[in-house]
Amino acid sequence: AMSVSYRGAVSNTTTVSDANGITITSAASTLAVPSLVSSSPVAQYVVGGQTFGIATFKLATVDPGTVANVRELRFITTGQDAIKSITVGGVTAPVIGNGAAATTTVAGLNIAISSNGTSVPVTVQFAGFQGDASGGTINSGSGISTSITLGYIEATSGVTGGAAITQITGASSNTMTLYASKPTITVAGGNVDTLILGAENKVGEFTVAADANGKIAVASTSVTLSTIGVDSPEFTLTRVTIGGVNVTGATVTGSSTAVITFATPYEIPAGTSQTFTLYSTVGGTNTASVTQHYVASRLTSAATFKWIDSVGASSVITGGSSLINYPTNSYTTLR
Fold first, then answer.
1. Average pLDDT for residues 57-79, to the nearest whole number?
2. Which residue in 299, 298, 274 sits closest to 221, CA to CA?
3. How far separated are the first and last CA of the chain, in Å rounded?
4. Residue 106: is it exposed, middle or buried by C-beta count within 10 angstroms (0-12/13-18/19+)?
5. Cα 92–148–323 angle (5° rounding)?
6. Which pTM value belongs to this model?
7. Among 209, 207, 214, residue whose Cα is nearest residue 178
8. Nearest to 180 by CA among 130, 105, 221
9. How do residues 259-296 score in pLDDT, each as one tens digit?
10. Beta partners for 286?
11. What's the mean pLDDT in 110-120?
């Protein structure tokens, strides 16, 4: 309550009255459970020694209109010796311990958050990699599954000088697979060479590049072949070449799906690329009602691309969904 004093203009007497005011409270902030932002990297192959934005977490307070200032984040990492350090908000902290016991505390932060949420990027440096002309070595081995979990948030409630508040329910990044190197595959567009039925034609072309950190080798892949404006198409005597010369030890089987197998996996040095070209004798007859007659080819799927991390591992790796940005475009003869 509050008191109001007033003096009568005629009576010249003073009266004091009590009046009820509006109660004002200061809401203390509570930290919401963090979440992984949908734009965070999906599960994929990563390369030893690289700095990689592994996740973005949304940090927020619970009640509308409340704010807080995050000053410390703690992480748990998976993968034996896979991650060397974690960086948040310009502050880098080392990973302490190994395997399931590995933790990182990033302190000294100054991240303002509210009930609307703030996206906080988290960057990691993967296990050390010493590159050399032959590919180098990776400290932690190869083919290691690794991820981070944000397991503890500490903040001060309000703008400055508020009480310490914490959140211990965590959120995790997607799981990455650590190798010494990895391939990048692209497909040329073509649309240059005229299709000649009954003769050998250039029907496909793709390029495989090795990451600068190390050499890789291609074990096998497959190419789907199709035609537009050709009746009863058939692909025979398909071969794979480099610069017009057959690749030694490479075989191609199948017709509409050409499976390419290298008897000895084809090695590509670190930081370089190799283009593979497919030729095939194309049979069939032109469809009379169609004005365009051409071949279209594409790499069948990432699941059919098999490769070897020549430095970190000797076993064959199947591409799958972790081989992100796998090309889906087609090579065509002249349309």
1. 96
2. 299
3. 86
4. buried
5. 110
6. 0.85
7. 214
8. 130
9. 999 999 999 999 999 999 999 999 999 999 999 999 99
10. 230
11. 97
